[in-house]
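My current task is to audit a protein record that another person submitted. What it holds is a sequence and that sequence's fold in token form. Thanks in advance; the entry in question is below.
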Amino acid sequence: MANKVWAYIDQFKGAATPASWEAVAVARTLANQIGGGVTAVILGSGVEGLAQTAFHYGADEVLLADDPALADYRVDSYASTLVAAAKVGSPAVILFPTNTRGREVAGLAAMDLESGVIPDVTEIVLEGEQVVATRPVYAGKLLAKVVCSARPQMVTLRVRAFGKPEMDASRSGTVTKIAAVTDGDKVKVTGYSESEGRLSLTDAGVIVSGGRGTSNRADLQPPDDITDEKQKEIWRAQQGFKLIGELAQTLGAALGASRAAVDAGYIPYSHQVGQTGKVVSPDLYIACGISGAIQHQAGMRSSKVIVAINKDAEAPIFKLARYGVVGDLYDILPALTKAMKERLGK
């Protein structure tokens, strides 16, 4: 365990999140500069098969805690197991994906290791063995360069910010088994529920999102049994989101929404993109009927290509978009979906 750069592999029921392999690839780049190898840390039950994939993405060693006690994710157990390994291995840097589990484990482990965490990093460079990380601040309006003076330097990497890693199937490495640390668990997992099989916003390469503009078609008449004005508004918005959903399905995209749409009751919070929702970095982000408030921009401004569809030519979203269409989403989306189906042969 002499490698100076470690990457934490986030997994659920034996399947690693794609962002974990991005962390391994970034760790490989840092290790090449520092000198030495990359250690991937895999915790769970029935996860031994992930070790070979970690080698393919650039790891030289895997620290494996494969224990039935780790079958369910509980932050105390996972963080304690990582901390015990880090106290023995003394890494200089530990990288995590910026998702719920990654941030939890990083934060709790940092307390026990008396270190700190640099969160949601979009760029990382080395000065000697000192990590200099770039992360958005003030709702993404500024970028700050941050360092961690303690060791290990713990960093969470924004999902998709570093590009898709390349695999080398010829690579192999050493698996070192470590003990799970589960004393003092205060949480019991009683079950899981599926989230309708939706694509993950944070992992999606394409996202189509809707905002308050989905309800702005006053000529749409709801069924007679809907008499409340608020419910009429929600019904109209749902018709707009149906059009957005059709485009998303055609493109194999995830469905997103602005905070305004969520707060208005048009769509569940799980779809929210923004400072208080999901932070995303897709290859393509299509904003439909979204004005582009700072809160929303904070969650999607790092998208590679942004397309905006809005009736208001002065909407702030157009300043961020590479391509903009001024018009009613009810008119534009059906035509766009039809064109995409023809182009994709669907």
